[in-house]
Amino acid sequence: MQDFSLPSSRQTPAIELAFSAHRLRITGEAYPENAVAFFEPVLEQIRDYLALAHAQPIEAELELRYLNSASTKMIFKLVGLLDQAASKGRKVRLRFVVLDDDEMLQDLGADMRADFSWLDFEFVEVAG
Amino acid sequence: MSQLPNGFDDVAAEHGVFFYYCGYFSQPIITASADAIQLRLQGAGVAEKSKRRVLSAFIEMAQNIVHYSANALTDAEASDQEVRFGTIRIAQETEGIVLACSNPVDRRTWERLDPKLRVISQMNLDAIRAAYREALRADGEAESKGGGLGLLTLARESVCPIHYEFTPTPDSDLMVFELRIIV
Fold it and tell me: Contact, B93 vs B16, CB < 8 A?
């Protein structure tokens, strides 16, 4: 499957889906006008990739800043896809990097950790 | 340029208003306004945490206007590059930073929002957080371009229950929707 990348914009994060290396990375802010329209194609690619059911472990990293509510929901959904793959035996490691004074994203990380127990979840706080 | 006594500028200053916009909202206007607000907050020495809350609440409010205001320049069925009318005011008041928004809504939006807001406005923070977590996990909200999660985000950012009102307009069947939170 072909790798996919999208540079960041003022209101959308940088997306790096290096499927060939089994590395997925999303960094930056997300508050597009229509979060479903922005994220759904990204989720679709990840679904297709996961359906190929490689054996190699996946390294995912989210280093997010501000997310609006609709983007928060899409990111949660995305991590849900990874967790689902992990529940079927794929090894998935998620590095979730947040600023130490960003409560909303810290809470999101806690919610993910609570729901998505199949992931090898690494929560990293960096100085804001 | 001289100012009229008791003019708009004086009233705004008296009420601690540092951002006021009444007009058409679009995504580029939201992004630029967020920059303007951030600069004002920085200049005023507002703590990073509060700054984040103000900006988050502003963007939720402004995107609500873009999605749901009944006064639209763009097609009513559009879901991207929309331009719709509303007002947002941000002011430093004694109880905190107040964010207030208003826009006209049609009957259908009123019927959908009113019961949601009634419930949210009576919740304490624990209940809001629980409802937020539930909405985060809920699958798709057909009616919504992002979700009830937006209103719950506003409620979460607010230090007191959200205050809202729907006021009938005299010359149309639209209602004026107003929402106020304190960060």
Answer: yes
